[in-house]
Specification:
The protein is 39% helix and 19% strand. It contains nine helices and nine strands. The strands form two sheets. A seven-stranded mixed sheet has the order 1-9-8-7-4-2-3, sandwiched between helices. A two-stranded antiparallel ribbon has the order 5-6. Strand 2, helix 1 and strand 3 form a beta-alpha-beta unit. The chain is elongated, with a radius of gyration of 18 Å.
């Protein structure tokens, strides 16, 4: 575990260098698929990553459907995606689907750094969550560490709260993941029951289980920002 001085960073890995054990040369570049629906952010990521010989941007996607198609077709080493895509929080289902479609590692690159966002990303199977406030060097380090088999949590400069668990003790079920997604999209219990065609009492039972697994006391804890100014509504 490594904790940085200006950002709260957690790294766990058996690190591999760019030179193999036999000393036969550098490993092939990290093949990265970028998922982002904000063109300015996407262009910035492309420009930054293309300055480095050990990273190759092999594709980009602006929607969840495009991301899943590209991941399946390109089989990248790492997929970089936001929490929110197309105005909704798509990371849970998209991350799960990508993990099913290919062997890529997933880095969630986002402005949402609340405790619940971190826990949600890891419950969905993400290998890293990196705040959009980090430096270019920190993002590159995360890509390299994840490609090497590690997990990274970098909440950015000024992170001043305890580090959530990277790997939760008990994962969410598929139904709980669906309900959590709907809660964060603003649906009420009756609305969720209607959409999922289940009883309201069943929704409440799932909500109690979700809160217990995430270590939260109430539904309000799911939606309130942990630090002012970070929940921007983008990415």
């Amino acid at each position: 575990m490594i904790i940085g001085s200006t950002a709260e960073v957690v790294v766990r890995s058996s690190v591999r260098t760019g030179v193999d054990e036999g000393g036969e040369g550098m490993s092939p570049p990290i093949r990265v698929l970028l998922v982002e629906d904000h063109p300015v952010v996407l262009r910035g990521l492309q420009a930054m990553l293309r300055e480095h010989d050990d990273v190759a941007v092999v594709g980009e996607a602006g929607t969840a459907a495009e991301a899943l198609s590209q991941a399946s077709r390109l089989q990248p080493d790492v997929v970089v995606l936001p929490v929110r895509l197309g105005g909704i929080r798509a990371s849970i289902e998209l991350c799960r689907s990508i993990k099913t479609a290919c062997t890529a590692r997933v880095v969630v690159f986002t402005s949402f750094t609340r405790t619940v966002d971190v826990q949600m990303a890891m419950l969905a199977g993400a290998d890293a969550l990196v705040a959009k406030t980090v430096s270019a060097d920190a993002l590159l380090a995360a890509l390299r560490q994840v490609r090497a088999g590690g997990e990274v949590l970098d909440l950015g400069p000024g992170a001043d709260r305890p580090t959530p668990r990277l790997t939760p003790a008990e994962p969410l079920t598929d139904r709980e993941a669906q309900i959590l997604q709907l809660v964060l999209d603003g649906l009420t219990n009756p609305q969720m029951a209607q959409r999922l065609r289940i009883e309201v009492t069943t929704v409440r039972t799932h909500m109690r289980s979700i809160l217990r697994k995430l270590g939260l006391e109430s539904r309000r804890d799911l939606v309130q920002p942990a630090r002012p100014g970070l929940d921007t509504g983008e990415g």
